[in-house]
Specification:
Layout: H1 2-26, E1 45-47, E2 52-55, E3 58-63, E4 68-73, E5 77-83, E6 87-93, E7 100-107, H2 115-121, E8 128-135, E9 138-147, E10 151-160, E11 163-170, H3 174-181, E12 185-186
Antiparallel strand pairs: 1-5, 2-3, 3-4, 4-12, 5-6, 6-7, 7-11, 8-9, 9-10, 10-11
Length: 187
């Protein structure tokens, strides 16, 4: 039994390191994809937010500081990373699989995401099949992206209330993420 616990702990550690590495890569503002990970500042703080069970199999996540909520499957563990510049990364990961997604939120003074901002946040420059969608009455852009840690991604970016929201998951979880994004509410 102790060996099973050890392997479970190792699997959880690998998943958390992968999610953290992806967050550090994505949050290396102004850096290029060829810079070393040591050049990317670590998060200011990490915490496990309080979530509320709303129905069997679903939990409610709320960020009053960043004015949004969403409903996510209860097999995912929510973790918040406070970032430089008043930003936040909220990661939602299944500790037993690679299923998960993250929400990156940062203060943003613009009304639209321009090419310069896109290149800053998406160093790979991959922006395939952009599609306009609506998230709680706000126009958003959904597209396929890429990063060296996750590989192909599905992303949804939008601006609301002085914040830029970037939601990302693995490409193969596209439909799954779509269901979660339908629960998004600005609060």
């Amino acid at each position: 039994m102790n060996q099973r616990i050890l392997w479970t702990a190792i699997a959880i550690l690998v998943i958390l390191l992968g999610a953290g590495g992806y967050a550090y890569y994505r949050l290396g503002r102004g850096g290029s994809s060829t810079e070393s990970a040591a050049a990317v500042p670590p998060p200011l703080a990490t915490s496990t937010p309080q979530t509320q069970e709303i129905t069997e199999g679903e939990r409610l996540y709320q960020s009053t500081a960043f004015h949004f909520s969403l409903i996510f499957p209860d097999n995912l563990v929510a973790t918040e990373y406070k970032e430089q510049g008043g930003a936040l990364t909220a990661s939602f990961q299944d500790p037993n699989t690679s299923e998960g997604f993250e929400v990156y939120v940062t203060p943003f003074s613009g009304a639209q995401i321009d090419e310069a901002r896109f290149k800053l946040d998406e160093p790979s420059g991959t922006y395939l099949q952009p599609t306009e969608v609506v998230i709680d009455n706000v126009t958003a852009t959904m597209f396929y992206g890429f990063n060296p840690i996750m590989g192909d991604t599905r992303e949804v970016w939008f601006v609301h209330g002085g914040y830029l929201y970037e939601v990302a998951t693995y490409k193969q979880l596209d439909t799954w993420l779509g269901g979660i994004m339908q629960t998004w509410k600005f609060i």
